[in-house]
């Protein structure tokens, strides 16, 4: 029996996935969490074989969950199921040790097959995205990404500095670097482009 924890903030999608996977004789959904923090607690408590997670969720994102699993060296394998068909997200997911990356518009049978494949030690990545991921590299550092994300939320340099325990000058340097790397005119354009590419 392959044990699974689901993490999906949309109740209807979460319920549908849970019901769908419950129809398979060799799959068992142990918990279905509505946000990243709840999923993390479930992972620690239940130690499932596979985590099936969305990317964008309240609390912790699917990528942050994958990074935590990787850092803590938990045996749980991660499959991301998302609407984000962006190469940047896939690259970051692979860096975080994710074993599967599927789009929500894929057939349900693809997810079932991916869970079995990943549980057996393989990978299950959308082939078109895999191709695109290696042709469009993310130029941002983790810190630049962090600063740019907060700038995109409307925070001023002083607020970002306080939030990240950095000096205002350092924050401005990170923003300037990100703007330069992305070849745009200001932080708003930088944030928009990085979001569009899946780098944030």
Which tags fit this structure?
elongated; 10 helices; 2 domains; Arc Repressor Mutant, subunit A; Rossmann fold; alpha/beta; 53% helix; 6-stranded parallel beta sheet; 200 residues
Question: Can you describe what's shown?
Answer:
This protein has two domains: 2-133, Response regulator (Rossmann fold, 3-Layer(aba) Sandwich); 142-197, Arc Repressor Mutant, subunit A. It has ten helices and six strands, in the order E-H-E-H-E-H-E-H-E-H-E-H-H-H-H-H. The chain has helices at residues 11-22, 36-46, 62-71, 87-95, 108-119, 127-133, 142-152, 157-164, 168-182, 187-197; strands at 2-7, 27-33, 50-53, 77-82, 100-103, 124-125. It has a six-stranded parallel β-sheet with strand order 2-1-3-4-5-6, with helices on both faces. It is elongated and about 55 Å long. The mean pLDDT is 91.
């Amino acid at each position: 029996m392959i044990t699974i924890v689901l993490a999906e903030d949309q109740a209807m999608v979460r319920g549908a996935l849970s019901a769908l996977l419950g129809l398979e004789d060799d799959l068992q959904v142990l918990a279905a969490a509505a946000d990243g923090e709840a999923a993390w607690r479930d992972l620690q408590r239940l130690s499932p074989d596979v985590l099936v997670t969305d990317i964008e969720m309240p609390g912790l994102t699917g990528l942050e969950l994958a990074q935590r699993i990787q850092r803590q060296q938990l045996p749980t394998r991660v499959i991301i199921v998302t609407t984000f068909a962006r190469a940047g997200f896939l690259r970051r997911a692979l860096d975080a040790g994710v074993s599967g990356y599927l789009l929500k518009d894929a057939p349900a049978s693809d997810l079932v097959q991916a869970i079995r494949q990943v549980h057996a030690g393989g990978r299950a990545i959308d082939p078109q995205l895999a191709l695109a991921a290696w042709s469009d590299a993310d130029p941002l550092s983790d810190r630049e990404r962090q600063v740019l994300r907060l700038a995109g939320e409307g925070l001023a340099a002083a607020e970002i500095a306080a939030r990240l325990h950095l000096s205002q000058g350092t924050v401005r340097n990170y923003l300037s670097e990100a703007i330069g790397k992305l070849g745009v005119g200001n932080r708003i354009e930088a944030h928009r482009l990085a979001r569009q590419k899946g780098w944030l």
